[in-house]
Specification:
Distance between the termini: 44 Å
Oligomer: single chain
Low-confidence stretches: none
Number of strands: 0
Structural class: mainly alpha
């Protein structure tokens, strides 16, 4: 895999998940579309939290961050 493709793969995947989630929320009707939109829009947020936790010292720091918020 080329360096350019490897660099842009995950940002494109996260953008596609976001666009799908927004379109599912706007166009879809019913419980299935609502669940799909919530799930698709949660993917980028979970990715951000996991990357921040890994950057600041691993899984234990995620538990520390949640304790600090309380």
């Amino acid at each position: 895999m080329s360096a350019l493709r490897r660099q842009w793969l995950w940002p494109i995947v996260l953008a596609a998940a976001t666009v799908f989630g927004l379109l599912a929320a706007l166009i879809g009707e019913g419980g299935v579309w609502q669940a799909l939109s919530w799930g698709a829009l949660a993917v980028p947020l979970v990715t951000i939290v996991l990357c921040l936790a890994r950057r600041h010292g691993g899984p234990s720091s995620l538990a520390k961050m949640s304790r600090d918020l309380d």
